[in-house]
Amino acid sequence: MKPMADETLTAAVLGLGQDGQHLLEAARVSGGFQVKAVADQDQQQAERAGTEHQCDWYTDYRQLIVQNQVDCLLVAADIHLCDEHLKTAIKKRFNVLKLAPAARDFEEALELVRLAKAEQTIFAIANIARFRPSYEKARMLLSQGQPAQPFLVAADCTVSRVDRPAWYTDPKLAGGGVLLHDCYQIIDQILCNFPIPQQVYALTTNQAPDKQQRLYLTEETAVVSMKFTDALTGNIVATRRHDACASETSLRVYGKDRVLTVSDDRVTLLGGDAAEDEQWEYEESEEETLARLLSSFGESVRSAGAQPATSSGAENLRNMALLESAYLSARTGFPEEPARILRITGNPSGTATSI
After folding, report:
1. What is the pLDDT of residue 3?
2. Across residues 199-204, what is the average pLDDT?
3. In a domain, 81, yes or no
């Protein structure tokens, strides 16, 4: 592929729910994309978006991919509806940006990563937390050794399950529950700042009335313990509530002298006796953050891979290996090793270069 310099990239969007609408608006705000086609299984949704953005619209994802040739495919479609269509798009040399999670399981993600490498296209995951100012600030602080000598990483994720579609409860369609679909961003942030855990131990459950029924539903509550090193451990506590609660996600890092806490719009660094407390607050819309993410993705496409994609599919195999380990541990009752899963790729460190 030849570099495209500052050319506007042609794009198509799969899935026009709330997330897809955010993608469409972000593509407009970023200024680097011309949307040529959109698709959603809801005809009214597809027609409305096509009319608003003056582009072709489809109710069949495969039809959009087969009948168009675009630089980029932006994917917000339900995870169980787009796997095979993503493969078709990559084989047509579309560069793909998919909203998280990367796939339903590690094997599915690995297949997409290997196919993209074979076709010399970009397959990237839109991990929006990487572009939120609060998490960018937290990464800078951690890189500067604040807090010093971290010994515990603790993540909390609470989400509402009101208005969730029925397929979320089906393990075959969804791949997983609260861990996969609601904790992916916080898992990505943990692995952006710390090594992949040596061991993962997990307990999961849901609100089904008996044990037999629980086996056939995705988890609504999960507790994951992680051992990074002998001196650093971590945990993730996640739950879907049945009421219309506000979703809340936070990450805390406990160090020798201070505690760092980060959420979507705030960073705090609480000091000990000799250190002052510090706090930073941020206001940025979802579309603004997504626009910066899309601009970064666009630069990778224009550079024909010379500028690596932020959050490449290969890099996201680390996230998927941790998740795979957690789900396996929940079934076996024993700790599992993400590095063992990554050895399938011939890349136990989980770097993006040797898939």
Report:
1. 40
2. 98
3. yes
Q: How far apart are CA 69 and CA 195, in angstroms?
A: 39
Q: pTM (2 decimals)?
A: 0.93
Asked if residue 1 has pLDDT above 50, the reply is: no
The reported pLDDT for the residue numbered 2 is: 42
**Residue 279 falls inside a structural domain:** no
Residue whose tokens read 């998490």: 135
For residue range 163-197, what is the model confidence (pLDDT) as tens digits? 788 899 999 999 999 999 999 999 999 999 999 99
The residues facing 153 across adjacent strands are 234, 253
Q: Render pLDDT for 265-317 as a digit per residue (tens, 0 to 9).
A: 999 999 876 668 999 999 998 889 999 999 999 999 998 767 787 899 999 99
Per-residue three-class SS string for the chain: CCCCCCCCEEEEEECCCHHHHHHHHHHHHHCCEEEEEEECCCHHHHHHHHHHCCCEEECCHHHHHHHCCCCEEEECCCHHHHHHHHHHHHHCCCEEEEECCCCCCHHHHHHHHHHHHHHCCCEEEECHHHHCHHHHHHHHHHHCCCCCCCCEEEEEEEEECCCCCHHHHCHHHHCCCHHHHHCHHHHHHHHHHCCCCCEEEEEEECCCCCHHHHCCCCCCEEEEEEEEECCEEEEEEEEEECCCCCCEEEEEEECCCCEEEECCCEEEEECCCCCCCEEEECCCCHHHHHHHHHHHHHHHHHCCCCCCCCCEHHHHHHHHHHHHHHHHHHHHCCCECHHHHHHHHCCCCCCCCCC
For residue 75, the enclosing domain spans 9-129+287-310
**With contact defined as beta carbons under 8 Å apart, do 279 and 259 qualify?**
no
Q: How far apart are CA 65 and CA 85, in angstroms?
A: 8
Asked whether residue 49 falls in the same domain as residue 196, the answer is no
Asked whether residue 277 is domain-assigned, the answer is no
CATH code at 302?
3.40.50.720
Residues 173, 90 share a domain: no
